[in-house]
Each structure stands twice: as C-alpha cells, then as structure tokens.
Amino acid sequence: MDTPPLSGSDSDSDDSLVTDRELQDAFSRGLLKPGLNVVLEGPKKAVNDVSGLKQCLAEFKRDLEWVERLDVTLDPVPEISGPQSTPENKDQKAFDPEDDFQREMSFYRQAQAAVLSILPRLHQLKVPTKRPTDYFAEMAKSDQQMQKIRQKLQAKQAAMEKSEKAKQLRALRKYGKKVQTEVLQKRQREKTHMMNAIKKYQKGFSDKLDFLEGDQKAAVRKTKEGAKGQQMKKGYEGFLFGFVMGAGQVSHGHGSEFHRSGLELREHSAACGRGLPAHVMGPFSRISLGRLK
C-alpha cells in the first residue's frame, strides 16, 4: 500500500516520494540494512589538475617586464634561533597550517626574503625605493567621503553629549526632589513644634514666647530672663498692690500723687506693667481704671 505524501517542509525537502513497495524492493536487493540508515559521504579526493591550472594561468598571464610584475619565488628566511632548513629537518619539522602564530611567522619570513632579494635589483635598475620627506600620498577616500565620516562622528558625539546632559538633568532633578522633600519635612516639623507651643501657651502651661522670635533671639532672651525675672515680679506686685518698690514708682497711699490725672496714671501703669502678656495685662488694666473712677 502506498503511503500518502509528506506535508509541509518535509514534502518540499524531498525530491521524490518514497513508497513502502520501493523500500521493500531495496531491502530485498540488499541495498538497505536493518536499523537506522544514514547515507555516509566518503572522504573527498583532492584533485591536482596541473593541466587545468596551467591553462587558467595562460589565460590571465601577461608578458610584462619584471619591474611591472615584481614577482619572485623564494623560500622563507631561515629562523634565527633554529638551525638552517635542510631536506632532513624539513621532513622532521612539518608545517602546521592550523597554528596561527606559526602561519603568521611563515608569512613574515616569506615577505622578508622577498624584500632582501628585490631591493638590490631595484637599485640596479635605478628605481627609487624611498619616498621624499615632503611627499603627500593621495588619500584613499575623497573629500566628500571624509566629510560624511566627519558629520557622522559629530552626530555621534552630539548624541553622546545629549545623553550625558540628560543623565545629569535626571540626577539634578532627583537631588532637587530630595532637597525639596527635606525642606518640606523640616518646615512641617517646625510648624508642628510651633503649634504645640502655641497650644501650651494658650492653655497656660507655658508663659514663654521664644517660639515666635527664632533661635538666636530665644538664646539671648534666655540669658536675660534670670536677671529680669525678679525685677519684673516686683513691678507686677507694685502695680497690683500699690507698693513703693523703687524710685519712679508711686504708692496709692501717698497723698501728693493721689490726685494725678487719669492719663498720667495710665502711663504709669503701662510703665510698671511693661513686658506683661496681653491676656494678663487686660484684667489688671480694667481693675486700675475701676479704681480711678
């Protein structure tokens, strides 16, 4: 029974369809063996067609002078460290074409031998072998090609500079956001501290207003609080009870000062109560005005 043709890539790769009957016929003739059948390619035989090579050489060969051809056939220069090449050591030391270093050194020695052989012949023919000092060789590329290369390099450099500037801007933005966040956090902490101090002051837990003056003024004020504390306390007591606490202060029991005008008494009260907070000064001022009436 014939097998259906293969589909897809298998059908495209096969040149012809193989049927079961053909396989059986090939097996009966002994062309196939049991197991996996793989077509083995035999080793390729090198063909040295000397006549064909000479024919190809004759096709492109030109009868020119040696100066135009500059071709020589020489053996490589012998190695300095090793012995000179002889038929005996040539057989002993075979050349390995897979060795990169040995292959490159053979090219170098071959070129060296050619130069040592050709230079004397060129000197005999009076052919110059050295360029003059002011010699400028023609460039392999034209000015237009060099201009294109220059523009390409400039565009590449501009792209690199643009990328570097973009990186710097991203770093600066990142640093700016970090600094801005720190400043906002610091302001929030200061605001929270001030609000807590105001609440304490409103509730009467503290009578200091240092949070309104700043750090330096607060430090100066703290140094002066100890010296002025007692004096302010005496001034408050003199204002409340009419005691004579010092020069310039007036007692309510003194007759000569009792009939002073209300404006003078208010100025006197303000002088005695200077530095007193507003919420403390208000009731006392109303009491003093009531006494005057």
TrEMBL record:
GO terms for cellular component: nuclear periphery; nucleolus; preribosome, large subunit precursor. One of its GO terms (biological process) is rRNA processing. It comes from the Eukaryota. Residues 139-166 form a coiled coil. Residues 1-20, 75-95 are annotated as: Disordered. It is found in: Nucleus, Nucleolus. It holds the Pfam family Ebp2. Keywords: Coiled coil, Nucleus, Ribosome biogenesis. Its main location: nucleus. Required for the processing of the 27S pre-rRNA. Belongs to the EBP2 family. This is EBNA1 binding protein 2. It comes from Lynx canadensis. The lineage of its organism: Eukaryota, Metazoa, Chordata, Craniata, Vertebrata. The gene is EBNA1BP2.
